[in-house]
Design brief:
The protein is mainly alpha-helical and about 200 residues long. It is built from eight helices and two strands; from the N terminus they run H-H-H-E-E-H-H-H-H-H. It is globular.
């Protein structure tokens, strides 16, 4: 088979995926914080690893945890390559995921870091909209569980007789309303984004 760079690259996906699975099953995957404490207190390599981990999480758009995606970034003579491996995906779904990540990376790469707050806010809103649209099924699944938990919490607050019960109910009811709306399957992407942002 030879030992050309092209032949080695054929195995990147398998190796990356195997490494990610090994880390997860050893428990190392649970040690990674969902959000780093502060980018200013982290070195560039740690921030970069967090970014690559997030790319893998974004690809897992199906609810239930049946799909697992691992990412790596390689420097080659042709330039930087983003390589991912994913289980339980057909060819069409893999191509869709590839197109989504390619567009996301291109968008991030074109963003100008000039301190323009309004432009940054618009950019983040666009990225969030794209993420919510791609991960909509998974987010909807989370929202269904969230709505159930909120309903129980509100009922307990109302029946507790506690002094701050009414205050909590007044704060939780708008969140419940936004969550119920965001989980509806017939919302378009803009309505879904607006409702989902209302939940936080």
């Amino acid at each position: 088979m030879g030992d050309s760079p092209r032949n080695y690259r054929r195995f990147y996906e398998s190796v990356v995926f195997l490494l990610a699975l090994n880390q997860t099953y050893k428990g190392d995957g649970n040690k990674k914080a969902t959000d780093p404490p502060s980018h200013s207190s982290l070195d560039a390599e740690t921030v970069f690893h967090g970014f690559v981990d997030k790319l893998g999480q974004l690809c897992d758009s199906r609810p239930g945890g049946f799909t697992f995606t691992a990412f790596t970034v390689l420097q080659s003579p042709e330039g930087v390559q983003y390589v991912f491996a994913s289980n339980r995906r057909g060819l069409v779904e893999l191509e869709t995921t590839k197109g989504y990540i390619t567009a996301l990376l291109k968008s991030v790469g074109e963003m100008e870091a000039d301190g323009d707050d309004e432009r940054d806010e618009n950019f983040m809103s666009t990225v969030l909209r794209d993420v919510l649209a791609f991960c909509r099924d998974r987010i909807r699944c989370y929202l269904i569980s969230f709505v159930g938990a909120l309903e129980i919490c509100i009922e307990r607050c109302e029946n507790s007789g506690a002094k701050d019960g009414k205050y909590l109910v007044d704060k939780l009811k708008p969140l419940l309303q936004a969550s119920r709306l965001a989980k509806e399957p017939d919302l378009d992407d803009d309505e879904c984004q607006s409702s989902s942002l209302g939940c936080w």
